[in-house]
User: Fold this.
Amino acid sequence: MGARKRISAEERKEALKSIYFAKLNNVPTSPRKMRLVADMIRGMEVNKALSVLKFSTKEASGRMEKLLRSAIANWEQKTEQKAENGNLYVSGVHVDSARMLKRLRTAPQGRGYRIRKRSNHVTLFVDTKNTNDNQN
Assistant:
């Protein structure tokens, strides 16, 4: 590895130490349905977001709740603080499409219709309100 590549890799590693996130890959739900749930909690305080996800009727909200709990645990691990003091919020949620399973469904007159079973990748970022206020 060259010096320039190593330096940029070390900079990326240092940047990741100050970002608190959790990823969920290959979720067998369409990205559109997951984005509806992601839009519900984006920018919300963590405790309020957990309660919204818990009482939501959407199927994707269960997976999103588990992912949010994982992001909170990652924040607690890196900062060695507890999340109960209430200054933690969901700073961003990214839902990207993942692989697509392509299937055929029989159709009339010897034809076949294509079925695309979509999946997605979800990345959830959490941050404290205090650090965000200091930057502005």
